[in-house]
């Protein structure tokens, strides 16, 4: 089983190994197949415990397939296929409402795939279905993901009309060699034009940037950071490439180009470098890999800026009482005590919802997770102590938290725990460290499954970054 050790006496490198992934939903429970008309599933859900709720809609189509991308997606083939899928989404919203009622929602996210492939009238239909099914009186955030080639003024206006107040789009890199390597076929010119349109119409915008690609040099990361900050988005997601779940096409392209994978030690160095550059340019961390332009009204005294956050992510990586209701092929739902997965295959999903008028869940996990808010807190940067049912949290998580405080990864600030700068650098390792053993086993198993033929073994070692103990403790 993968495991890691906290290095208390090291000044910066606080773990002996680095997890080669950058997030996962907790609890990462074992899923069983489920055939149910909804009555039993929703009866098992501890609805009275729900404190905040998010809705997620998945749109799996993409015009082109980027080969580094780990998300559930497929190539766009026809407008008719998309129209049928939107019919199914609208139908699923109505089917589920019978079991969950007209409940309040705090955040909505439409992701994919490429939701900006939807036509303005399809965006409007989804907005109407959501407004009919949910009480949107306390909705604070409504995010739509966009891909730069498919963005248009009309689509952005349709998003605004249904209440979208945050648009996020992928840039990944401005480097010509990596854009070609990853099959990112939009030109940098198109990226800038779409960004200008999006930032002129929405107050809250986000752009994604990758780092740690095979063969990447720090100078190339500097160029990407300089270029992406010029787009003027309010936040940036700066995240390491996930070699384990990328397609074999990407690995073939890397081999053809003769590039070497960066070991985790180098990727940690890249992360430290990116954070320094971004802080120098007026940004502060807001989540595991999110940065926001520093706002004079925000609290930036600590290592984490508190506003603007990405509320949907705060719920996905939130507490046991944060509920996510997912719609669309492969969408996940998570309620206190129950996790549900929709059918992955888009055709089977549409057939189940439209043809059989049935709920499209095919896997279920049942487990309570009172420790969830503690395990996921390194992604959010702070933990409100009042939200945790401490008497139910397993001892192994409590002991791990104490160890993290002793190692200067976490500080106790009275009513909350807060990540230090060191903790921030290793938020993924900390999440793993805080998990009960059963969760660690499932993550390890998943990583082993993803390690194609041992191709990437040995990349997790951080020991060559360590300072000799006598120097570190001086
Ligand atoms: S990165 Fe975005 S556009 Fe590219 S394949 Fe993945 S979901 Fe589609």
TrEMBL record:
Cited Pfam families: Radical_SAM
GO biological process: porphyrin-containing compound biosynthetic process
A GO molecular-function annotation: catalytic activity
One GO term describing the cellular component: cytoplasm
Keywords for this protein: Iron, Iron-sulfur, Metal-binding, S-adenosyl-L-methionine
Radical SAM core domain mapped to chain residues: 47-284
Cross-referenced SMART domains: Elp3
Name of the featured protein: Heme chaperone HemW
Organism: Spongiactinospora rosea
């Amino acid at each position: 089983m993968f495991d890691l050790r906290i290095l208390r006496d090291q000044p910066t490198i606080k773990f002996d190994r680095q997890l080669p992934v950058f997030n996962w939903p907790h609890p990462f429970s074992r899923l069983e197949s489920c055939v149910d008309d909804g009555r039993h599933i929703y009866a098992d859900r501890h609805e009275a415990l729900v404190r905040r709720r998010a809705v997620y809609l998945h749109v799996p189509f993409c015009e082109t397939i980027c080969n580094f991308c780990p998300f559930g997606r497929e190539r766009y083939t026809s407008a008719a296929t998309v129209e049928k899928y939107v019919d199914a989404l609208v139908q699923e919203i109505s089917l589920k409402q019978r079991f969950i009622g007209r409940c309040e929602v705090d955040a909505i996210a439409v992701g994919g795939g490429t939701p900006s492939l939807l036509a303005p009238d399809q965006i409007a239909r989804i907005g109407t279905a959501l407004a009919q099914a949910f009480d949107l009186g306390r909705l604070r955030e409504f995010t739509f993901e966009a891909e730069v080639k498919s963005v248009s003024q009309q689509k952005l206006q349709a998003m605004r009309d249904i209440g979208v107040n945050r648009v996020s789009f992928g840039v990944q890199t401005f480097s010509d060699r990596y854009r070609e390597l990853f099959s990112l076929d939009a030109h940098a010119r198109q990226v800038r034009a779409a960004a200008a349109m999006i930032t002129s119409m929405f107050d809250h915008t986000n752009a994604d940037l990758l780092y740690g690609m095979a063969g990447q040099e720090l100078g190339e990361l500097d160029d990407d950071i300089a270029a992406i900050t010029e787009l003027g988005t309010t936040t940036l997601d700066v995240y390491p490439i996930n070699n384990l779940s990328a397609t074999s096409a990407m690995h073939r392209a890397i081999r053809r180009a003769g590039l070497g994978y960066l070991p985790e030690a180098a990727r940690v160095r890249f992360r430290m470098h990116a954070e320094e550059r971004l802080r120098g340019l007026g940004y502060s961390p807001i989540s595991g890999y999110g940065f926001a332009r520093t706002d004079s009204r925000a609290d930036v005294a600590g290592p984490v800026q508190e506003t603007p956050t990405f509320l949907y992510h705060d719920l996905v990586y939130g507490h046991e009482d944060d509920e996510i209701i997912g719609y669309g092929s492969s969408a996940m739902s998570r309620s206190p005590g129950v996790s549900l997965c929709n059918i992955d295959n888009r055709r089977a999903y549409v057939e189940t919802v439209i043809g059989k008028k049935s709920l499209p869940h095919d896997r279920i996990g049942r487990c309570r997770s009172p420790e969830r808010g503690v395990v996921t807190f390194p992604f959010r940067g702070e933990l409100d102590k009042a939200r945790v049912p401490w008497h139910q949290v397993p001892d192994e998580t409590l002991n791990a938290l104490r160890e993290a405080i002793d190692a200067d990864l976490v500080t106790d600030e009275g009513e909350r725990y807060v990540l230090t700068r060191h903790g921030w650098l290793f938020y993924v390792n900390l999440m793993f460290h805080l998990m009960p053993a059963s969760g660690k086993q499932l993550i390890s198993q998943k990583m082993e499954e993803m390690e194609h033929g041992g191709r990437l073994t040995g990349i997790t070692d951080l020991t060559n970054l360590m300072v000799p103990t006598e120097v570190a403790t001086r």
